[in-house]
# Entry
Amino acid sequence: MPPAHILVIDDDQAVRDVLQETLSAEGYTVSVAADATTGIQVVKEQPVQILVTDYQLPDFNGLEVIERVTRIDSKIIPIVMTGFGTVECAVQAMKAGAFDFVTKPFDPDTVVVVVQKAIEFQRLRQENHLLRKAVREQYRLEQLIGVSEPMQQVLDFVRKVADSDSTVLIQGESGTGKELIAKAIHEASPRADKPFVVVNCSNIPSELLESELFGHSKGAFTGAVAAKKGLFEVADGGTIFLDEIGDLRPEIQVRLLRVIQEREFISLGETASTKIDVRILAATNVDLKRMVKEGTFREDLFYRLNVVPVRLPPLRARRR
# Structure
């Protein structure tokens, strides 16, 4: 296992030098930055496990640094240093997500101990995540999918695609468990703790579907008495499952294509785009290839959805 990468942000060169020397001597990989902007760029360019940042920096304070860095990578564990040593600063740092708090002047060995505790915490957190994932795979997926040979092949598929963010198109007859498979993929993925949003494209009236998916601002249309988040925004960070995707009318097909390509959308009545991080799973009980040939389903959208296809066996083929 490679050594932990620690990023130190402090505008005092003496502090940067002593922490770089001390932590490097412990076997860690250490990067240093004199301001928040430079440090944030380091996080964007390479993986960082532990952040050690001063509370007072030339461009941002330490709390803003924590917020910006963890937005890039939520797994980074922040440690805050300050010369003020007030209880208020400590409380603010902890509320912002700091793992621990070090007051200046400090003994470098104290920072080493705090860093070691942070790395151990990160290791335990990762082990916990892997354990929960293993339990989900061993029990929940098998309960959902069953033990027949055809469905065991589907289970193997779920395990293979769960860790990726690829778009999956689930095809099969009505009643074959397409939503259960989508839920299984989500539960076995790194997004399992984030939202799983189900949209049945055939149950929502076509004139309302666009607003449901992308949201609207107040006054965007008659009856829009308040702004409303769309389901894509609700699913941000998680997974959205678009069931009966073949029922989408052409204008919504165009908007969905842009969401898949750009990972952003514009709500009804708005002019600015909203960025999202959503995995898209889709399902259908109709032949989309035939619909493409008939001109009722966009070919470019079909290929964007059909990145990882899976066909569920009919119930009659699942005899134990």
